[in-house]
Write a structure and sequence with these properties.
elongated, 6 helices, mainly alpha, single chain, Arc Repressor Mutant, subunit A, two-stranded antiparallel ribbon, 141 residues, 2 strands
Amino acid sequence: MKLTSKGRYAVMALMDLARFNNINPVSLRDISLRQGISLDYLEQIFSKLRKKEIVQSVRGNQGGYVLNKKAKEIKLTNIFDAVDEKVKTVQCKKDSKKGCNGKSTKCLTHNLWDELENHINDFFEKKSLEDLIKDNTERRI
């Protein structure tokens, strides 16, 4: 199981945005410089986040992006879903009658990995952007 850079960068960028969101809209250029993420890549990510209404863009000289909801209302699963990130621990489709690796039955450890996937997704469903910001602030003190 591996999260792609798209999912990790989306969370990093939104944490950055949430930290500065109360002041003014935040430019992708500023996020790019602070987080070391390519501006082109951020534009792709924020296009998806905007379509899923997690962020909204503000035009003008002081333009940029703001969160569309409060940080505590944005769960990690919302972010991953917006950027088409899937947390999967098994190769096969969960509801498929076919087994793993094209065999007629599921592999011996299928239920183990399936259960792990459920725990991971439950963890991401419970964690909000606000939780991450608080955790990060507490660790810096």
